[in-house]
Specification:
The chain is 33% helix and 11% strand. The chain is an alpha/beta fold. The N terminus is likely disordered.
Length: 379
């Protein structure tokens, strides 16, 4: 997770920037978008870019952003399915029309996915309120997802992968984890430290069932039946940052192990992971950060699944034009080289840079793709 109004509500633990707190509204019912006869997308490259929440941008803005991405030589994009649904689905249509392969992330902070009257866990005024995975209704989820996938299918759009949820191993995106009463408080370091381990375990079990529902609904489409199922990209937030915000976070390896206990490897094709190595640490520390985050990735079935890095990136707070991006370019090149090594080994399937045009992490600067952006996402 990083920068600005970039995720389901819009706030970043990395920068500490407050952003607009948006309460998601119920899903909009399907409403007859015309079926377009669109060309099939190219085979996806292993490197892509994020541009989530395009539903919050007007139609002209969506067209402009996706034009910029496609004309920059990028071949694959991670988009989000969030409210308003018409806008999300229109972004998928436009991306496909412009030749982009699509990884679709599904927001789980949506009242329509939960039994009527379900209340989200409070964010205590420091972050958005968030629903509990232990409360999610598989039938509500099935109905919402079926409607969206069938609409996308009628538009002639194949998806390459679907990623239900986001960063479900920390409290910002999983209401079964705690927001501590005060910031600057010690947070949970392991599953043993959470206040309600039974609820967290029920949420993990529900999540695995949700993945099975996703596969079943994809199988009913004509164009996306072969799409990969990727688990929600897990956060790599360090404990000291979690403490500063007072939001519980479970390390990716432990949370993945919990989901595997409930049959994860029979439900998913790949593990989602987010990696933000930090530009202010030493090369050795950054390398260690990357290796630790990717310890869950495996090509051996008994040990796990290959990883999809659905977010990664480095901050650049400079606002001058032309963009001063040389330092970040070096960091990006070194990290991408490591990813490429692991891709050749089969441990990583794809990596999507975060973000296209966010204030701090964005790579679209001064009207063009920045040097770091070219190093991160172009073939």
């Amino acid at each position: 997770m990083a920068g600005g109004a970039r995720r389901a509500i819009g706030w970043s633990w990395r920068t500490g920037e407050p952003a607009l707190l948006r309460r998601l509204i119920p899903l909009v019912a399907a409403s007859g978008l015309a079926v377009a006869a669109l060309a099939a997308p190219p085979a996806p490259t292993q490197f892509g870019v994020n541009r989530v929440n395009l539903a919050w941008v007007d139609a002209a803005g969506r067209e402009k952003v996706l034009d910029q991405i496609a004309q920059s030589g990028i071949r694959s994009v991670r988009l989000s399915l969030t409210n308003p649904m018409d806008g999300s689905i229109d972004a998928v249509r436009l991306a496909h029309q412009k030749g982009l392969a699509i990884l679709l992330e599904i927001s789980l902070n949506n009242a329509a996915l939960y039994p009527e009257g379900t209340k989200p866990r409070s964010g205590r005024g420091r972050i958005w309120d968030m629903y509990r995975l232990s409360d999610i209704s598989l039938e509500h989820y099935r109905a919402v997802l079926r409607d969206a996938l069938q609409r996308i299918d009628r538009l002639g759009v194949p998806l390459i992968a679907v990623e239900p949820g986001n960063e479900i191993n920390w409290g910002a995106y999983n209401g079964d984890l705690d927001i501590r009463p005060e910031a600057n408080s010690r947070t949970a370091r392991s599953l043993r430290d959470v206040s309600d381990p039974d609820a967290v375990a029920r949420g993990a079990a529900n999540y695995v069932e949700l993945l099975k529902v996703t596969r079943a609904e994809l199988a009913k489409t004509k164009l996306s039946a072969g799409a990969k199922i990727v688990t929600a990209g897990l956060s790599d937030i360090p404990p000291e940052h979690a403490d500063r915000r007072g939001i519980d976070s479970i390390d990716p390896a432990s949370f993945t192990a919990l989901m595997r206990e409930h049959g994860l490897d029979q439900a998913a094709d790949g593990y989602g992971i987010h990696i933000y190595p930090g530009g202010d640490t030493s090369p050795a520390a950054r390398a260690q950060h990357v290796e630790q985050a990717l310890s869950i990735c495996s090509i051996r079935p008994a040990e796990g699944k290959p990883c999809w890095i659905t977010e990664w990136g480095f901050a650049n707070t400079a606002k001058t034009c032309p963009a001063d991006d040389s330092r970040r370019e070096r960091l990006v090149k070194a990290t991408r080289e490591r990813f490429a090594d692991l891709m050749r080994d089969g441990r990583i399937a794809a990596a999507y840079y975060f973000d296209w045009d966010a204030t701090t992490y964005g790579i679209w600067r001064c009207g063009e793709l920045s040097p770091a952006g070219r190093a991160a996402v172009t073939p």
